[in-house]
C-alpha cells in the first residue's frame, strides 16, 4: 500500500517542487499578500490539541491524521480541491498558508503531505502556531 501511495504522490511532489519559490534557511517566502475574511472559528483551544495522542505541537505531526482529527485541530478548511486521487485542504492565516494533501488509506482519508508558505519569513512552527490559535494572529480560514 505504501509503495502505491508513494507512486501516486511522486508526480504531485515533483510538480510542487518545480513550481514553488526557492526556500531559504529562514523559512519559506512568498511575495504578495493573502486576502480573505476573518473567521476565528477554526482556531482551537489548547485542550483540543492535547486531546490528540502526544499533543500536536508541530506541523510534521499532521501526517497520518484523519479528516476528523485535522478538523479538531484546525477546523474546517477555507478551501478544498479534489485532484484524484488526492484531496487538498487549504488553511490561510494572516502571514502563512498551509496546504494538506490527503490520500485514501485503508478506506479513510489521511494526511500524506503538507506544504507551508508565507508572506514573510516564518518558520513552520510559527505558521502552525498561528493557524492553531497559539500565535498572535487568528487564522483567516
CATH uppermost class: Alpha Beta
| Helix/strand/pairing category | alpha+beta
Distance between the termini: 33 Å
Topology, number of strands:
4
Number of helices: 4
Architecture, CATH level 2?
A: 2-Layer Sandwich
- Report low-confidence residues grouped into runs of 5 or more: 19-54
Which fold name corresponds to the CATH topology? Beta-lactamase Inhibitory Protein, Chain:B, domain 1
> Would you tell me the overall average pLDDT?
70
* Cross-sheet strand order for the largest sheet: 1-2-3-4
Describe the structure.
This protein is α+β, with helices and mostly antiparallel strands and 141 residues long. The chain has one domain: 2-Layer Sandwich (Beta-lactamase Inhibitory Protein, Chain:B, domain 1), CATH 3.30.1450. A hairpin with a 3-residue loop joins strand 2 and strand 3. The protein starts with a helix and ends in a 10-residue tail after the last helix.
Write the layout of secondary structure elements.
Layout: H1 2-19, H2 46-51, H3 67-74, E1 79-83, E2 86-92, E3 96-105, E4 108-118, H4 124-131
Antiparallel strand pairs: 1-2, 2-3, 3-4
